[in-house]
Amino acid sequence: MKKSVLITGSSGFIGFHLSKKLLKLGYIIIGLDNCNDYYDVSLKNERLKILNKYDGFTFIKGDVKDYAFLLNVFKINDINYIIHLAGQAGVRHSIVNPKLYIENNLNGFWNILDISRRFQIKHFVYASSSSIYGGISKTPHSIDQKTDKPLSLYAATKKSNELIAHSYSNIYGIKTTGLRFFTVYGPWGRPDMAYYNFTKSIIENKTIDVFNFGELKRDFTYIDDIVDGILKVLNRESSEQYKIYNIGNSSPVILLDFIKILEIILNKKADLNFIEHQKGDVYETYADIGPMKQEFNYNPKTEIKEGLKSFVNWYKNYYKIR
Fold first, then answer.
1. In this structure, are residues 240 and 178 in contact, taking their beta carbons and an 8 Å threshold?
2. Staple 248 to which of 6, 103, 182, 256, CB 3.0 to 4.6 Å?
3. Residue 259 maps to a domain
4. Is 154 a catalytic residue?
5. For 228-268, how does the pLDDT look when each residue is reduced to its tens digit (9 = 90+)?
6. Pairing between strand 217-218 and 253-254?
7. Does the pTM of the predicted model rise above 0.85?
8. Which CATH number covers residue 93?
9. Would you say 121 and 168 are in contact if contact means Cβ atoms under 8 Å apart?
10. Which of 154, 168, 245, 286 is catalytic?
11. pLDDT 10s digits, 140-153
12. How far apart (Å, rounded) are the C-alpha atoms in residues 87 and 107?
């Protein structure tokens, strides 16, 4: 019997790639998304056009903040598993519009989790973030580290998700798994992400703001490696009800080195404007992926040069740049 998976945020960056991969493997996918205008909606629509070509894909437009709507989705669909990727992303945007994060990442998260309890879903997998490690200076970041001092509201909501999931696993016996993603990048990515903005600015001869004078490190993780990790976790056979994992490349890159790689790929120099550290940003992300390696033989394969080249090729093709 084919597994039926509800993927929230299916028209988003990770949701799109994950849906496509699962569809190719024969899963039945119910995609749910409100297709909001946080970034270019046409990009989301183009992703959906691709997914709609698969027979096993059903798209439902709606919002996880609407409990009654979600309840109806579960009543009319046979759903075995949930991968919850919907939510409000972006560290800096959480400074400008905190209410969005409370509504989407807290209220929306509880809605989908509670309905999962009511319908006895086999496994609830959800997106957390490397941002929850906040100002922890000891690296690599381990799931055993204390993460009670988030530097942004976005990070605080993600930490809250983990705590709520823990309580539901403990009280109701729901199998939940939180995935702390580390700086995901690749084709069809989010335009608000640095690598996307940098590429656009270099091509268009625009100045790039480089925060903390370039002294930042990020554990850039290619989208295919993220999807591979999610798939392994989705099918975990462990009897433990509640789990947290880091999914990263475990190889942080200095921001200035990252920009240099882009310059080489684009064969064009970037105009850099060095500025102070941005509130809410962490200085370094670096994933300890030991548990993923040990339990699932997880091994990220894409090096930064290869991944960025794939993204730039997609970008030029998508925006018709010669």
1. no
2. 182
3. no
4. yes
5. 999 999 988 878 999 999 999 999 999 999 999 999 999 99
6. antiparallel
7. yes
8. 3.40.50.720
9. no
10. 154
11. 999 999 999 899 99
12. 10
Taking Cα atoms as reference points, which of 205, 189, 142, 216 lies closest to residue 313?
Answer: 189
Beta partners for 271? 207
- State the residue range of the domain holding 28: 4-185+221-250+286-300
- Give the span between the Cα atoms of 17 and 223, in whole angstroms: 8
Do residues 135 and 282 make contact, with C-beta atoms less than 8 angstroms apart?
A: yes
Average pLDDT, the chain: 94
- Written as one letter, the residue type at 112 is I
| Domain count along the chain | 1
Cross-strand bridge partners of residue 126: 84, 178
Quote the CA–CA distance of 80 and 4 in Å, as a whole number: 5
For 29, the token pair is 């996918």
Tokens read off for 204: 């268009």
Q: Cβ contacts of residue 76 below 8 Å, gap of 6+?
A: none
